[in-house]
Structures are given as C-alpha cells and as structure tokens.
Amino acid sequence: TGTGLTAVKWYFNGNKELDKTNSHYSWPNSNSPSLTIYNVVETDAGNYLCFAENQAGSHFDSVILNVNLKPRVSTTSSIVTVLEHTSAVLRCAVNSTQTYTTVWRYNGLTLTTGSRFDWTSGTTKADLSILAAQPSDSGTYTCVATNSIGSRDVQVALTVQVRVPLITIPQTQYAVEERQNVDLQCDIEASEIDRVTWQANGVTLTSEFGGHFYFQTSYPSSWTKNAQYLKISNVQKTDEGITKYQCSATNIAGSATSNTAISLDVQYGPVVTVLPSQQLVLVGETVTLQCTSQSNPPTASIAWTKDSSTTVLSTQSTLRIGPIQASDAGTYRCTANNVLTVPGTGNKERTGSNAMVLTTVAPPQSVFLVSSSMETVAKGNSVTLTCNSLGGTNPLNYYWQFSGQNVSQSRSFTIQNIAINQAGTYDCWAWNIYGKRKADQSVTVVVNYVPLPVDDLVQVFQRELNEQVTFICFTYAMPALTDYRWYTKGSNTVIGRGMYYTLDMSSSTQYGDYECVANNSVGDSQRIGFTLSARGSSGLNTGASTSDTCGVGWQLILGLTLGILFFLLIVIIIIVCCCYFGCCACCKKQKETKTKITPEEKPLAKPFTGSLTSAVTRKDIDVSINGYREDRYVTPRYHLKPASSVASGPIIIPFEDENSVYTYMPEDVPIKTPRQLPPLQTFTEVMEAPRKHKKKKRRHHHYEQNVLPPPSNKSQKQEIEDDIIVIPGPSRDEVYA
User: Fold this and answer.
1) How many angstroms separate the Cα of 691 from the Cα of each of 553, 576, 588, 699, 700?
2) Which of 265, 518, 539, 723 has its CA 20 to 30 A from that of 382?
C-alpha cells in the first residue's frame, strides 16, 4: 500500500524477476500491484517477493505459494539385481504437500510387512527391504503413494540370482576318544545343491577309505539351509594328524569350500616305550633305562617297578641302576597314566605300560684253591693242582700259569713225573667272555731231590809236598743238605765230614783220587770226584776251587796300580820341568817363536768302575784291570755258605773266567747264555792333583783312581766261608737264568 507508486516488481524464489509479457501472470500496475497466476501448476509453487517504490522510498515483502498436487514418487534405481540369500533394497522417494500413504505391490499383489518384507509408509522414504532374497522373489515391484488429490507410483524390477553355496562351520574342533565315532558338521546355504564333498588335509574323501569316513551323497530338491555331516567311525590317533577337515558344495552357480577347517582332538591313553627293551649288563657297571610315553592329554605320572613288586623305584622318566649287582637282574616295568576329558563323557583315567628285561653278567667273582697252597713232591712223582670259582656267568673256563706261561687249560692240573725246574709258583685263572680273575692264593710247588753235583767233571788239583790243598764239595739240593762224607776213590771208609776237606801235603801217598757224597732227607748224592797230583803232572783244572789260589790278590793289584801311577807322575813332572826351563829342543823352539803350547794331558790309568754289593750275593765281586792276566786259568772265587746254613733251595755258584761270570747248571736244566749279575750300585771316584803353573795360571789334571777293597786280616778259609750265600725259594729258571 502507498501513494504515488512509481514502480512495482515481483520476484520468484528470490532472484528471478517475473516477465511482464508472460500471459501466465496478470502483471500489476501502480494502481493494482497484486500478482495473478493463471492455470497454476506444480512449478508455480515457491517464494514470491513484491518490491514497491514511490517518492518517499521503497519497500518489499514476500509470500509463499503452495500448490496442492498428487504425491510425487521417484526411485534411484529402477532395476535391482542381488544374489540369493542376501538382502534386496528397492528405493522409493515420495514428495507430497499433503498427507499420503505408501504401499508396495508385487506382480499386482499388495505386499504386507512381515519377516521378509518391510517398508515405512507416510515418510519421504518408502524403501522396500527384502530379507534373504530368493530366486522366486525376482519380478516387478511398484511403489504407490496416495493423498487427497490422488495417487502416483514408480516401478522397480528385481532380479535375484542363484549364488554359490554359503558354507559355515558351527564347531571347529571335536574331542573324541580313540576307537569311538564322531560326526563333523558343515552348514550349507543355497537355493539348490548338486553335490557335497569332504576333504582331509586337501585330499577328497571317497568310499575308497574303507568305510572309515561316511557322508551324505543325495540331497533334497528344495534346499535352504541344511546341515551336512562327515561321520568318522573307529577314530584312530592318525586321524588327529589330519589337521584340516573341510566341506565343499557345488550348484549351478559354482563351488564353495569352507574357509574354516575342522580339527580332531583324539584323546588316548599312554603308549609307553622303554629303551633298551633288553640288555646285558656287566656287574659293577651302570645302566640307564629310558621311559617315553605318548598320550593325549599329556601323561600325568610315571612309575617304575621291578618284577611283580608294587614298590615304586622311581617316578622319573629315567631310571639309573648302578653299580649293577647280580640281584639287579629282572623285568623292569614303566607305567604311565593320564585323564581323558571328552565333553559329554566325563573324565576317564587311562593307563599304559611297557617293560624291559635286564640280564646281569659277570666275570668270575671269586677264585679259590681246592688243593693246598703248598705242595711238596719228590722229583719224578706226580702232583695235582685244583681250583674252583664262584659268582661268574657260565660257561666258565680255567687255566694254570707257571712263570708267566700257560701250562694247563683245565680246572685240575696234574704234573706227571715232575722235574726240578717245575718247582715254583703256580696261579689258577678262571675266565669267561666277560673277564677273568686270578685265584686269591698261588700254589707253591716244592720239588725234593737228592743232592746233585754242580759239575760232573773231576776236579784236578796240583800241589807240591808241604803245601796245603782244600777240596770243596759243591752240590745243590732240596731240602737242605744235612751231611757231607769224604772217601778215597773206591773206598767206603769215611775219611772226613763237612763241605771242606783239607790236606797238608806231607807225603806223596796223598796224591790220588778223592770222592765226596752229600746227603739230605731225600738221600745221598752220587760220588763227586777230585784228583790231586804233583805240580807239573798232566791234569786240567776244570773248575775246582782251593782256598790258597785265588788269583791275583787285591793287595798286589793295589801295589802295582800305585807303582804305575807314581812312575807316570814322575815322567809328567820331568816333561813339565823341561818345558818350563827350556831344556828340551821343542821347548826352545817354542820360546824362539813365542808360541805357547799346552802339553796334551793323558790319563795315567784307564778309568776304573767299581761295584758295590752284587744284586744276588750281596758280596764284593772281584774286579780285574783290562789287559792283566795271571795265567791261562783263573782260579775261581766262590761265594758260598756252609751247608748247615742252607735252609732250602739251590745254591748259586758264580766264578770268573776272563771277565765273565758263569753258572753251573744241573744236568736236566737247559743252560742259558752266561751273563754278569748286575751290581746294586756302581761308582767312579775322581781325584784331583794340582800341577805347577806359570804366571799364576793354574792347571788341573784329573785322574780316575781305582777304588779297591781294604786288606783283610781274615784267613783264606774264613773269607771263603763268609762269602757263601744261599738263595732259597725261587724256581729253577730264575735260579739258573
């Protein structure tokens, strides 16, 4: 309203000025500014703005025009395609100025909301939701909206495609006891099924598995969601090793395999293994038995027992036995148990066991003598040695040893026609394949025999009248000698007793042959001959001994040695003096040339090595200087003891001949190569003597001085008697080695 309007304008929806020439409108003027719309249509609805102006100013105002129409219905997609068993959503948008209602029709039939179909009526969105669409749901769906003015609709075409089967696994692990049955479940969703298969670790199961596996092979024509089962009968532990059981389904759309695998928990009692299963063990050693148990669930406990006893030896998997005794032999059993926990069956205890056989073996444990440890037998007779043993594993064998050599391969050993050299110590051994053992005691065999001469040769002596000769009757015997008797040859009249027989040569009638007979408890020796003749007559000294012809005495040797040393010392002093004062031509020449020559030092005597007590006789052994000999035959020096002091055993009689020591042997004893008996200790004594020197330069010459025994005040007979020694007890081989 206003006066003097100069201009009037209308705008549509804010910025569009209406065209004055458009016949759809009646354009206003200054006298009538109102706007008239002819034949109103839906598009005329909106916001209209009126602008008026006069001389006083301008003003504007707006008005909204609502056009009442039928509901406007639209869809974003007129064609919808989905897979079966999925949800399908059909879009329907409604725009109405008035209250309206919406319905959906399928193939001319009005749908009702329910479990599978649902929509909201009276809102701008009336989308139809179809749950778990099936191929039969395919078709044309119409969305109809109605208000007071009228109705409008929109159509949507739905296609439900058949899909590959949908597989779900309701339980992924099954616990089952060994040798029981189990059903594995597989749920399959599909409109139709052509085939269902099962795989174990990727291998398709068939009837070739011998009825161990079973599953359905025929299916209903109308399929929605069905459960399929793989039946496993008589379940074995090996079935647990199949870690992945799967099912597959096939239809016209394709094949599908379950993404989730099924596994078996096959429960079983302990399977026990004992190593070793059997063993031979030597007594004294240690053995270790190992028990292993396989079970599901794991083994709860282990117990070791022996034979039928219920006493538990150990609860550890390892049983150590040792040191082994014979009583440890037997059967050792390892028992294990666990508890099965299969759902629906309760807890079940299961037990398993296994055993091993331990056999103990041993070498002979005790070897003892059955016969006496001391056997005395006369030469030529027989003796039997017997031993036995306990505690060894059969079969047992025996053998006897003498001087380190095997002499018998039996438990009893008989020595027939025993000889002197068979006297000594005998050892019994028992053995088997596991070892050997010697008897705790040895058998000492003593062979008794009559005295025997050391030498069968007649000993020859040469003496002049008024000289003295001593015969010595050398014999050996077992047991000890008890008596000596002396005869002239061919006579039974005893002319003397004792080991020594001495004659003072007062008459030529004393020349001739003499004989000695030695006696012990066994009997008499044969007659031992001696021949006495005048010096110069024929006869060879074959080893006879006298007390007054002992070779070169040590006093003479000492005197000769000292004389030689003194002579050499004088010679050296003269040579040194000549050189020092220039008396010698060679020394003068040395002075002229001013050359100093040191004279060569030479030993005054050859080095001498003395010996202490002999290892056998424990007496001094004569020493001879190299190169010195008295005559062709060196009178032997005997080391003896009187016969009365001989307890038992033979006598060793060494004598010297050209620096060698020989030993007389009995007739039936093999003679070995003679050798020098070693001393207990050797020594060399060195003496120093100062020499003259020039210009304070000292020189020393070293001489090895002979060490000789001091002179003795004893008589010759006393020396001979003191030098006698008897060695009882050793075997013949040892005595005459």
Assistant:
1) 33, 9, 21, 6, 6
2) 518
**pLDDT-above-90 percentage for the chain:** 34
* Mean of the per-residue pLDDT values of the chain: 77
The one-character DSSP state at 670 is: P
User: What are the pLDDT digits (tens) for 72-90?
Assistant: 889 889 999 988 778 899 9
Local structure of 721: helix, strand or coil? helix
In three-state form (DSSP H/G/I as H, E/B as E, the rest C), the secondary structure along 505-547 is: CCCHHHCEEEEEEEECCCCECCCEEEEEECCCCCCCCCCCCCC
- Which conformational region is residue 201 in: left (phi greater than 0), alpha (psi within -120 to 50 degrees), or beta? left
Residue the block writes with tokens 């009248």: 465
Q: Are 243 and 267 in contact (CB under 8 A)?
A: no
CA atoms within a 13 Å half-sphere pointing along the CA-CB vector of 434: 18
Spatial neighbors of 736 by CB under 8 A, at least 6 apart, are 663, 665, 666, 669, 671, 672
pLDDT tens digits, residue range 371-392?
Answer: 899 999 999 999 999 999 998 8
- The two three-digit tokens of residue 70, written as one number: 């039928």
Backbone angles phi, psi at 437, to 5 degrees: -150, 140
**For the chain, what is the total number of helices (H) and then of strands (E)?**
5, 55
Closest of 720, 652, 643, 646 to residue 483, by C-alpha: 643
Q: What is the pLDDT of residues 417-469, one digit of tens each?
A: 999 999 999 999 999 999 999 999 999 999 999 999 988 788 889 999 999 99
CB contact at 8 A, 421 and 415:
no
- Reported pTM: 0.46
Burial 22-55 (b: 16+ CB within 10 A, else e): eeebebbeeeebebeeeeeeeebeeebbbbbbee
Report residue 149 as tokens: 């003015």
Domains and CATH numbers, the chain: 5-65 (2.60.40.10), 72-161 (2.60.40.10), 166-261 (2.60.40.10), 266-361 (2.60.40.10), 366-448 (2.60.40.10), 454-533 (2.60.40.10), 600-722 (no CATH)
